[in-house]
Amino acid sequence: MVLDVLYFAWVRERIGLGRERVETTAVTVADLVAELSAREERYALAFADLKSLRVALDQDLAEFSAPLAGVREVAFFPPMTGG
Amino acid sequence: MVLDVLYFAWVRERIGLGRERVETTAVTVADLVAELSAREERYALAFADLKSLRVALDQDLAEFSAPLAGVREVAFFPPMTGG
Amino acid sequence: MAVRVQAEPFDLGAESTAFAAGLRRAGAMVTFTGLVRDNGGALQAMEIEHYPGMTERAIAAMVDEAVTRWSLEDALVIHRYGRLGPQDQIMMVATAAPHRGDAFAAAEFLMDYLKSRAPFWKKELAADGSAWVAAKDEDEAALKRW
Amino acid sequence: MAVRVQAEPFDLGAESTAFAAGLRRAGAMVTFTGLVRDNGGALQAMEIEHYPGMTERAIAAMVDEAVTRWSLEDALVIHRYGRLGPQDQIMMVATAAPHRGDAFAAAEFLMDYLKSRAPFWKKELAADGSAWVAAKDEDEAALKRW
């Protein structure tokens, strides 16, 4: 499956890009995180503490245990600070 | 003692005036109310239900049991409906 | 801090802009505006009576109390009296604070006190007669939370 | 109901006036405005990043939720992104309802959700460096009251 993976705020800064296409066989978000972290140090660094991260699947907040089946866009970012 | 006595809203309408000077020997607000009520039917009508009335002494909310010593201005009115 | 009691309409937009322009440290600003509800079209006008002198004094005391309770950079209360039409703006409150919790709490506190402790009385005029607006138990009860 | 996510400044006064002018049955209108705090003069600018698409979607869902919970005549959310200076206006919320309780509650609900559930991230730029603003536990906790 091919996913659009988006990064925001310090996740974007650590990984060094805001968006990429990722070819993956990951079943869950956690699988995808493990796959990316194994790639390069900058990914491992960005994903080091999942408690300080949030994930959205097709623009809805989700859990790291959520399945990726049918998903087109995955976004990783820190807790939001709007308002 | 001579007091300025003010009436607002339906108290003013029932008594038929907004302000008068009253010469009185009343010790408390309740005494003054009794004195005024004894005067004329329209006063008795306006003061019939003290629970639906409020009183201010020199522009501060007070109790009907409050003493009038040193007071110059007494105002009677229904519960306020500002805002 | 400012309190204005007036017969004239006020300009909510201009007042909001001017209030915001005066802020130097605030992170949060809240305004509340009270409007004349027309009760499904029956209302022709609202007459607001007040107690000149006591009104300004009572509102200033509320603002002082709000300043001691919350960290406010500024506060404004404007309240009209006299004859108003349906959907006319009756009054406004503005508060500014470093954080939103204080700005909201102070505005709600001022509104609750203005409702039941500022000497205003409203009379509704309709085609079938006029009636003084009765104070609501829930408005009196709202004071207990502060 | 309207949601706007934009880089451009908005005019709080003009927005308040326009929102009020559209009301037909409201007795109460509340606005909240969020401003860039300058932290005692150290702040040079604030950069706000957001997630285009999800932002509008998330805010629209919050407004829908507010409409189901309270009796609202109208609601408006404007939120900026991009580079802002000290005391610039970041965002505003406006709500209108027959009674003040609903207008206040809906505005506070929207603010609490915008703080922690709308995909915005703030970075503070100062002379001695820049830092992402950390989410506060109290903002997450604030959601529990709804």
Automatic annotation (TrEMBL), chains A, B:
CDD domains on file: Ubl_MoaD
Quote the Pfam families the UniProt record gives. ThiS
UniProt xrefs under InterPro entries: Beta-grasp_dom_sf, Mopterin_synth/thiamin_S_b, ThiS/MoaD-like
| NCBIfam families named in the record | moaD
This chain's protein is named Molybdopterin synthase sulfur carrier subunit
Q: Which organism is it from?
A: Gemmobacter aquaticus
Taxonomic classification: Bacteria, Pseudomonadati, Pseudomonadota, Alphaproteobacteria, Rhodobacterales
Automatic annotation (TrEMBL), chains C, D:
Which InterPro entries does the protein's record reference? MoaE_sf, Mopterin_biosynth_MoaE
User: Which parts of the chain span the membrane according to its record?
Assistant: none
What's the top EC group for this one? transferase
Q: Which domain of life is it from?
A: Bacteria
Q: Share what the entry says about its subunit structure, partners included.
A: Heterotetramer of 2 MoaD subunits and 2 MoaE subunits. Also stable as homodimer. The enzyme changes between these two forms during catalysis.
Tell me the GO molecular function terms: molybdopterin synthase activity
Keyword Flavoprotein included in the entry's annotation? no
Q: Which GO terms describe its biological process?
A: Mo-molybdopterin cofactor biosynthetic process
Read off the PANTHER family from this record. MOLYBDOPTERIN SYNTHASE RELATED (PTHR23404)
EC number(s): the record gives 2.8.1.12
What does this gene product do?
Converts molybdopterin precursor Z into molybdopterin. This requires the incorporation of two sulfur atoms into precursor Z to generate a dithiolene group. The sulfur is provided by MoaD.
Q: In which pathway does it act?
A: Cofactor biosynthesis; molybdopterin biosynthesis
This protein's name: Molybdopterin synthase catalytic subunit
Which gene is transcribed and translated to give this protein?
Answer: moaE
What lineage is this protein's organism placed in? Bacteria, Pseudomonadati, Pseudomonadota, Alphaproteobacteria, Rhodobacterales
- What's its catalytic activity? 2 [molybdopterin-synthase sulfur-carrier protein]-C-terminal-Gly-aminoethanethioate + cyclic pyranopterin phosphate + H2O = molybdopterin + 2 [molybdopterin-synthase sulfur-carrier protein]-C-terminal Gly-Gly + 2 H(+)
- On whether DNA repair is a keyword of this UniProt record, the answer is no
The alphabetical list of record keywords is:
Molybdenum cofactor biosynthesis
Similarity comment:
Belongs to the MoaE family.
From which source organism is this entry? Gemmobacter aquaticus
